[in-house]
Amino acid sequence: MRKVALLFPGQGSQYIGMGQELFKLNSVVNNTFVEASEVLDRDIAKLCFESSPEVLTQTENAQVAILTMNVALYRQFESEYGIMPSAVAGHSLGEYAALVASRVLSFSDALKLVEQRARLMAEAAANSQGAMLAVIGADEALVKQYCEQASVGSTVVAPANFNAGDQIIVSGSVDGIEAIQQYFDDLNIKNQRLRVSGAFHSPLMQVAADHFEQEIAKYTFAEPVCPVISNVTGQAYKGASEIKQLLVDQLVSPVCWRQTMDYIQQECISLALELGPGSVLKKLAKHHYAVEALSYDLKADREHLSALVMNRSERAQFNQEQNINVFNKCMAVAVSTRNTNDDIEAYERGAVQPYNALKALNEAGDVTADTAQQALSLLKTILDTKGVSHHEQLQRFNQVADEVQLNTLITDFSVSELVG
């Protein structure tokens, strides 16, 4: 099965009517909009379907609307395909949907955080004279050099988004943006001012970042069940402990989206699915030739996806035909994880013997809720003995649960309870 990355767009991707078709046809999408409306005490469906572009574009409206749309499409995709992604990533605001998909945050908490994030960003924008500029076809080093040259005294200019090899967004004070725009005009480098309310992802958002740091401290973040790529580093988070600070840093740091796509390609992930309004991330992926990008918001791409990836029922039939079950999946994880235990006797007792018990269960072939629980407990013993980290164990057990659809066999199965 192809490795899949899930991508979530950010502010600027919104449009009037986004999600309306699926809202009418799909209860999962409908219920997500209803949940968002209840959490925020405002009609998110009406905001997305019936407001004006001017209203929807306002930061306080756009961010909660896009998050709702992103999560609605993710939930619809997950309900149909049930695939554990090999990685998730979101562009700026989109990172919060990625954290919901990786089970770091509940949707409710993500909505509340994003509501505060949007408010603080809007206030910071209103209190500073900021602007943003898209630069097309310029070398990254050259853009950084001109940002440094233009930043003198109270004038601030900094890279805001490394979107693709040929597209960089810069952000800063109006006088700084005007100065750097003149540099690029003189060099005949294509550039365009963006219609935004502030200098996002720049030092002018520091006040917002300081207040957001206090707000985010109130929330509990779980360990991700799959790799989540940070906007700030372009690399997967090492664990929940570093996510909060990097989300704060994100407000004043450039979005490393090109580096995010580099990571996806380097991990041999060949399919990237954009879950959210429009197809901006699909378009940005055009330079990463090894990655096929689709947008779930486009009907043609949804149809193409169904030809590329098995849905839940097709996968269940395939597993049955190929005799893929919880036993041999646990065995595969047991042998593919690295051992850090040099104690030969402990390894024999905690890894070899449980593996032989797994093998016996597989040979017997009696897949029931009880025997599945036995297999999972044996794998847990093996992973503990081999010194596999808590973070990796979460991802490994979620991989098993996803590939054999454990929730159809053990209705109350919980990876977090198993791993502890």
From TrEMBL:
Record flagged with keyword Plastid: no
Enzyme class: transferase
UniProt keywords, alphabetically: Acyltransferase, Transferase
SUPFAM superfamilies for this protein: FabD/lysophospholipase-like, Probable ACP-binding domain of malonyl-CoA ACP transacylase
EC number: 2.3.1.39
SMART domains to which the protein is assigned, alphabetical: PKS_AT
Domain Malonyl-CoA:ACP transacylase (MAT) positions: 7-312
Domain of life: Bacteria
Pfam families for the chain: Acyl_transf_1
Catalytic reactions on record: holo-[ACP] + malonyl-CoA = malonyl-[ACP] + CoA
GO molecular function: [acyl-carrier-protein] S-malonyltransferase activity
InterPro entries associated with the record: Ac_transferase_dom_sf, Acyl_transferase_dom, Acyl_Trfase/lysoPLipase, Mal-CoA-ACP_Trans/PKS_FabD, Malonyl_CoA-ACP_transAc_FabD, Malonyl_transacylase_ACP-bd
Transmembrane segments: none
UniProt name for this protein: [acyl-carrier-protein] S-malonyltransferase
UniProt source species: Photobacterium alginatilyticum
